[in-house]
Amino acid sequence: MESIIEVRNIKKTYKKRKSKEIITAVNDISFTVNKGEILGLLGPNGAGKTTTIKLICGLLIPDSGFIKVNGIDTQEKRLHALRHISAVLEGNRNLYWRLTVRENLEYFAGNRGKSRKEVALEIDDLLEKFRLKEKEKELVNRLSRGMQQKLAIAVAMLADSEVILLDEPTLGLDVETGYEVREMLQDIVKNYNRTIIISSHDMDVIQNLCERTVIINHGEIVTNDKVDNLLRLFDVRAYTITLDGFLSEHQQQLLLQKFPQLEYIPDTIQSTLKVDLTKSEEIYDLFDVLKLEHTPVESIDKKTVNFEEVFMKIVKGEKQYAMV
Amino acid sequence: MQWFNLFNANIRKEYIELKRYLPNTLAMLFTFYFVFLGMFFGIQVIGDPSVQDINTQYAIVNYVFWFLTIMVIQDIGWQVINEGMRDTLEQLSMSPMGIWKIMTTRLLATTLLNFIIVVFLLFLSMLTTGQWLNIDVGTLLPILLLTLISMFGIGFIIAGISIVLKQVQAFLQILQFILAGLTFVPLTVAPFLAFFPFVKGVDLVRSVMIDGVTLSQIQATDWAILSVNAVVYFVLGLFIFLYCERFAMKRGLLAHY
């Protein structure tokens, strides 16, 4: 697949004003984004997601490394590269609050050198698609946060760029609007053939929308893999075993020796064992221990892992899962 | 064509915002007018009666020009501060046209709109005082154009400083008084001020409006000084602005207010 964004060995540091301490925001990160792909950029607060997004947008200059958008170096030909990118950054949604919905769209199109006439039909189409037609003459400061967010995405769409970067697109939205924005983004990917990079804390957004995810922690990439692969990787190893009765002290010791992270919840009627296996064959070792005292097994459930759990496990330093 | 569309978008935005912030615009006009009335009555009450007319004429030209200077030079600085506060500065920086082009068209747009206001205030001042000045458009226009270009340069320097430092409101307040000094002091007192951004321009405007100097009477050296000032200050201003923009991008200062 042809890549549209290439991030190579990017490093960005900041100097704290008072202490003059050097903070490394991103450290030697490299990844590519394919044309038409929807990539999730994940990481805890301060991990370096927004810095990465701004580096790609050309709003920050890296200390070393390079970024190419459609083959154009963002440092050498910044303005040329910007023709291929639009973004919705975090904050007050990057809109003019004393202009109406339509005026905002027209103004930002004008800032990219387009005339009002040229974009009139496109604006009508976007207003319909984003269900903002009825609000087109409304001042932005009178819109709900969700509508402002939809408008900000519409502004990015109007730029007609191949790549759209979205920094926290569902932040601060209620469940219903968050769902609506998610659907909208799905529609953009499906019908508008754009490449999208989403930075988000909302794991549902990443799990539902993104094919691949890059997880950043402490300014370094800890994982770069398909969402499905990551889910599968953790999914096959997480089991919950329900027992009819208790485990003996001896059994408990043997299991803890073999599986140090095993969780045993004794109960008068049914006890529970929760275990994450490194290899699926290890389940036999577990059964061997149960068989020693003929402990009856009521049920075995393979735990369904959601992406939030996967993310937490990776961020907690389980670097062995990194597949950069 | 892209420049035209950019200008069109920015003048439209400025006009709409001027209308939407109408109370603010009106307050600005009233403030201007009442301060002017204060000056006028001051001249009438405590001024030398033998030079009352000429003093009033000087007051009109200097005060109106000072008002124009403040609006042109400071406006871009305020624009950067406001964009920073509204989180739109980064969005503007992402335009493939380049932020300096957006700011140039903003400057042109606001200057055009402010110029209409200034012309209105000029006629209001003349009507109030009964002192009708020589409005020779053919002579005034080239002088004003060249003077405005040098003002744009200073505007860009202030915009650049605002991008990096953000909180420059106090500096902008002080700047008003510096601009007043440069506008009100005649060149005969300090001839070297001719090489300051707009001082030569205001001096020539005074000559045209008060003394009735015509286009053909203006010396070639005056035109040369005006032109050199225009080019030097504009290029210098743009250079500093672009440098500050790059500096802000290196330090990650574009978004921080």
UniProtKB/TrEMBL annotation, chain A:
Q: Does the keyword Ribosomal protein apply?
A: no
**Residue ranges occupied by any ABC transporter domain in the UniProt entry:** 5-243
Q: Which InterPro entries does the record cross-reference, listed alphabetically?
A: AAA+_ATPase, ABC_transporter-like_ATP-bd, ABC_transporter_ATP-binding, P-loop_NTPase
Mind telling me which residue stretches traverse the membrane in this protein? none
Q: Is Nucleus tagged as a keyword?
A: no
**SMART domains named among the record's database cross-references:** AAA
* Domain of life assignment: Bacteria
Keyword terms, alphabetized:
ATP-binding, Nucleotide-binding, Transport
* Pfam families assigned to the protein according to its UniProt record, in alphabetical order: ABC_tran
**Alphabetized GO MF terms:** ATP binding; ATP hydrolysis activity
Give the family this protein belongs to, as stated in its UniProt record: Belongs to the ABC transporter superfamily.
Write down the PANTHER family for this protein, in alphabetical order.
Answer: ABC TRANSPORTER ATP-BINDING PROTEIN, ABC TRANSPORTER ATP-BINDING PROTEIN NATA
Q: What is this protein called?
A: ABC-2 type transport system ATP-binding protein
Species whose genome carries this gene: Oceanobacillus limi
TrEMBL record, chain B:
Q: Which cellular compartments is it found in?
A: Membrane
UniProt keyword list: Membrane, Transmembrane, Transmembrane helix
The ABC-2 type transporter transmembrane domain covers 54-239
A GO term from the CC aspect: membrane
**Main location class:** membrane
Membrane protein topology class:
Multi-pass membrane protein
What Gene Ontology molecular-function terms does this entry list? ABC-type transporter activity
Q: Which domain of life is it from?
A: Bacteria
The residue ranges crossing the membrane are 21-43, 63-81, 102-123, 143-165, 177-199, 223-244
Q: What is this protein called?
A: ABC-2 type transport system permease protein
Q: Which organism is it from?
A: Oceanobacillus limi
